[in-house]
Amino acid sequence: MAPTLPNAGALAGCKVIDLSRVLGGPYCTQILADHGADVLKIEPPGGDETRGWGPPFLGDTASYFIGVNRNKEGMTLDLSQPSGQELLRHLLADADVLVENFKPGTLEKWGLGYDALNEAFPKLIHCRVSGFGSDGPLGGLPGYDACAQAMCGLMSVNGDADGDATRVGLPVVDMVTGLNAAVAILLALNERGRSGLGQFLDITLYDCALSLLHPHAANYFYSGNVPKRSGNAHPNIAPYETLPTASGPIFLAVGNNRQFALLAQTLNAPAMATDTRYASNADRLQHRQALRDDLSALLADQDAAALSDRLLRAGVPAAAVQTVDQALAHPHTKHRGMVLEHGEYRGVGSPIKLSRTPASLRKLPPALAPLSHQE
């Protein structure tokens, strides 16, 4: 993703009204905007609350906001007032997509719910991101990423076996909800090409958190055993975990017998590949601790970065554990165009690579505009 002006992008001509705040919705609309959609981010008079979620700040805007709001135009609007509602309707008249994450019932209270908007704008695709949806036992209740992680089992399988249930160290539920919202919008746009009609997209943190439970849910369905925490060790594969080296931890992700034989060969321990305890993945799982002990002894004098490079080139998935700064500075990160720089702006590039219509940086995140004039 180059910080240059533009090819038009795969979504050129698609107009998106973005009423969402915080992360799930804005992440979704940044995906659309990166690929050419004309996204108008409409904030309440006080702005998206993440503008203040710092330090660090660039000027008076928190890095949190900057990270998920590029390629958007901005304006403020008070939707609690009739004049703001009227202006939003005017903006929706030629829009393709509306993305919002209001608590279910809020837009309905203002006469801007799906039924009312669908009657006025039958081609409009209305995507709502919410915690739990509008109905059911938890319908209409507020939701946040960490609460979804706790409620939907993610924390219960994350952390050391003898430690506490632990939040995943990034807002994975919010971000996968944004991804699913973007996928849903593209599906609805494709279907609208046949039917000429919009529809309502109901994307919740709760559903998206549950969707992340593979392989734990599948294991539970077919064994009846409640999944437990196992640290960095995989419940179904061995060796698939971090192990110590002389310079720091390395992650080995050995998914089949061929890779295990290559691992043994690269470590100059060919006998390990013919050890009956390690003959198959099931055998390696049964003797996981012995395998870990044997590998730890072989790795004790190794450099993690150099070894991971040797293993990768031999066909064995492996990686030294890097810090965020190391990952962002890696030569392959630069090669893949995954860090954008333009003046003071720095951001993570789009992972979605299209050959003819790649993502591009066209607009920096919008400053907070004064309250838009409402007649």
Structure in words:
The chain is of the alpha/beta class and 375 residues long. The protein has two domains: 15-212 and 335-348, Rossmann fold, CATH 3.40.50; 240-322, formyl-coa transferase, domain 3 (2-Layer Sandwich), CATH 3.30.1540. It contains 16 helices and 13 strands. The protein has helices at 24-34, 63-66, 82-92, 106-109, 114-120, 145-151, 172-195, 205-211, 216-223, 257-266, 271-274, 281-286, 288-299, 304-314, 324-329, 331-335, and strands at 15-18, 38-43, 57-58, 61-62, 72-76, 97-100, 125-130, 200-204, 240-245, 248-253, 318-320, 339-342, 345-348. The strands form four sheets. A six-stranded parallel beta sheet has the order 5-2-1-6-7-8. Strands 9-10-11 form a three-stranded antiparallel beta sheet, with helices on one face. It has a two-stranded antiparallel ribbon with strand order 3-4. Strand 3 (57-58) and strand 4 form a beta hairpin. Helix 7 (172-195) crosses helix 8 (205-211). Residues 1-5 have low confidence and may be disordered.
Give a quick precis of the structure.
With 375 residues, this protein is an alpha/beta fold. It has helices at residues 24-34, 63-66, 82-92, 106-109, 114-120, 145-151, 172-195, 205-211, 216-223, 257-266, 271-274, 281-286, 288-299, 304-314, 324-329, 331-335, and strands at residues 15-18, 38-43, 57-58, 61-62, 72-76, 97-100, 125-130, 200-204, 240-245, 248-253, 318-320, 339-342, 345-348. A six-stranded parallel β-sheet has the order 5-2-1-6-7-8. A three-stranded antiparallel β-sheet has the order 9-10-11, with helices on one face. It has a two-stranded antiparallel sheet with strand order 3-4.
